[in-house]
Amino acid sequence: MPIKLFNTASRKVETFQPLNKKYVSMYSCGITAYYYTHIGHLYTYTTSDLLRRVLEYAGYDIRHVMNVTDVGHMTSDADEGEDKLIVGAKKENKTPAEIARFYEKCFWEETVKMNILKPNTICRATEHISDMLHLIEQLEKNGYTYKTSVGVIFDTSKFAAYPNFAKLNLAKQEAGARVKIDKERKNPWDFALWVTNQPNHLMQWDSKWGKGFPGWHIECSAMSMRYLGETLDIHTGGIDHIPVHHTNEIAQSECATGKKFVNYWTHTAFLNVNNTKMSKSLGNLYTLQDLAGKDFVPLALRYFFLGTSYRKPINFTWEALNAAQTALVKLWKHCLELPAPACEVLAPYIKNFEEAIYDDLNMAKALAVVWKLLESKEDASKKAATLFHMDKVFGLDLANARTQLSNLENLKKENLISKDKKYLEKEFKALKLIEHRYLLKQQKKYQEADAIRDQIKKLGFSIEDSKDGTILKPI
Ligand SMILES: [Zn+2]
Prior knowledge:
CATH topology of the largest domain: Rossmann fold
Number of strands: 16
Shape: flat
CATH architecture of the largest domain: 3-Layer(aba) Sandwich
Strand content: 15-25%
Largest sheet: 5 strands, parallel
Number of domains: 3
CATH class of the largest domain: Alpha Beta
Bound molecules: zinc ion
Radius of gyration: 27 Å
Helix content: 40-55%
CATH superfamily of the largest domain: HUPs
């Protein structure tokens, strides 16, 4: 059965055909390791994981490469602002390398919790500087670069296909939306390959153009080509990468090699929270840690992602996550009741399942097959075999349902204990404040005594004075 995939490059659903019969090369833009991963990132990485699992299910051998950006990603995806790694390092009073290793470790732990398969190759930008310098040299040799006082710049006007991928309207953009970052740049879209003359930047390497550090985009071009060759089968990322990061990756790679860079581009849509954009300032940027605090296990989030098409923005709400976890628990409980799997799977269900997953990863439809199967009167051991077979793609750990269910129970218990502990700590503080207030009143310091009432309120209690003393009540 052919695999159909939506290709961002053509904006069409295409039949997937790998370059090489033996394996599929797949590159995923990894994290910039300066902070915790939020659920929007996890949506993108879960999509890449599902794609990889579908291809593996179909019998392909996958060479999956993911980078870790630990230098050169500015606070805007273009070249403006400060290096995110340095911002993070300053904030936490650590070195950029310490920051990068710490958040990278957190990220891999989270992917394990989400049942996201580890890439075959993980590559850090700081460990591939020479690959980047070689690529920049090639671009210089081919006549696509120019030098300014702040580094080596890619001349986008030399690459006629530059606007095609993102369907950019450069004329309109030049008229206003995007301003030149500095006067020396020839075109507003030109971007830095190598940044020099930044004496305060904490990570610098020698090069023929002077001490400096790489631009974010060149990192992905250099590392993907290093491990997967000049043309990749698949490149994945978030939809926000299309206009700048991936457009620039294509420009650099194709101008250096003269070959097509990527055959299939897959992009995951945005994750919104309560129909608004997720952002730190709105306080709705959630991590797995936040979910755990509300009794949700990571695989509930995975199940939630399976309910939609990766090409549509997904709207995260606590109610929706709760519905996903309830369904998943039901599914795990069903699995507990099933006998040992038979050797034989139920072919009609597998057929419907495969039709769904090969149709541009229609996971919602594939999940519907699961529920239909559970409601059917088919032989229970064959049901089990069919379910576990499908779970190679879903990654819901159905074979370990008992462990998963007890993990969920443990999480709920831990949360209850920590809530109790927090409550008792607050109650203790409030009682101390009441004592203090009593003393103040005795000293006729009524204003100060009144102020304490507010402090107690902040701890979540109200107070009532009576003949027998002061009574503390939770609000
Ligand atoms: Zn990238």
